[in-house]
Amino acid sequence: MASKKALVIGGLGVIGRRLVQHLSGLPDWETVAVSRRSPDFESRARFISADLLDRADTAAKLGDLGDITHIFYAGLDGGIHAENVERNLALLVNPVEVVEPQAPSLQRIVLMQGGKAYGRHLGAFKTPAKETDPRYMTPNFYYDQEDFLRDRVKGKAWTWSALRPEAVGGFAVGNPLNLLLVLGVYAAVLRELGQPLRFPGKPGAYHALTQMTDAELLAEATVWAATEPSCGNEAFNITNGDTFRWSSLWPRLADFFGMDTGHPLTLTLATAMRDKAPVWDRAVQRHGLRPYSYDSMANWAFGDFILHTDWDVILSDGKRFRHGFTRTFDSEDRIIETLGRFRAERIIP
């Protein structure tokens, strides 16, 4: 019998989806997931469709969840922009203010953040970034969300934790903020056009050190952060635990897709890929792929954000190692492995 009951906010994003799947495989967890969409996979979790930006709808849909023991926040509104404070704050505040007062057994709220907590989106920043680094000048919705929890927890029995992954990728379809599908669809389109696989980012980004976080590793880390006593009221960087350079990975990607490695050529993917849906549709027909829509597969602005970062992006995993979560992945190997799974499931050619 389940002894813990999770509420996952953002249950069908690349992070939330993998977390729901992970929790569903744990016998001592019962899971309720909130998303605007319906799941496209089988799960033991109960899914609720709710508009969390609407306080009345939030109360109507989540008002009976008095037995929740853990809240996992993986929501996002408005894409990757840190400045979108008002709506992203409401996306956390509304469900917490509805559920927390009626959940006497609530133990912990886990907040998903990311490298933008260190200003990685603004330019070269101090690396390796550590959880003790000072904040930069706002606006940043991560700060507002964390401050809300810091204030809310005063005098309460529950605690919070914040996790900071970097460039999350994993086996998840239907959420375009997935780095691996950005790479997979980009390569499929170029191959369909008979072109080599060119790195589309800035020259400096091709050689800079960078990191990513596998969604499976992040799901395990999230449950650890929710249940480990020493994680209460603490923040943790969560990456694969290594660094890599695109210049090292790119020839392996070309080999995986059976393509030549082209000379890097800086493109704005949000512009260059805007009209490529017909090319993707041809690839889907040619290779007998599952008919996911082009727009649901990849967010090209997200691809530009990652691949145009021409400075090192390194978050220190030392704190989470010291607190007991030590799992790592070789990022290059994991990327190739996960792309192979997308291919086996007929999602990319």
UniProtKB/TrEMBL annotation:
Domain of life according to the entry: Bacteria
Domain PRISE-like Rossmann-fold: 57-349
Pfam families named in the record: PRISE
Gene3D superfamilies assigned: NAD(P)-binding Rossmann-like Domain (3.40.50.720)
Protein name per the record: SDR family oxidoreductase
Annotated organism of origin: Vineibacter terrae
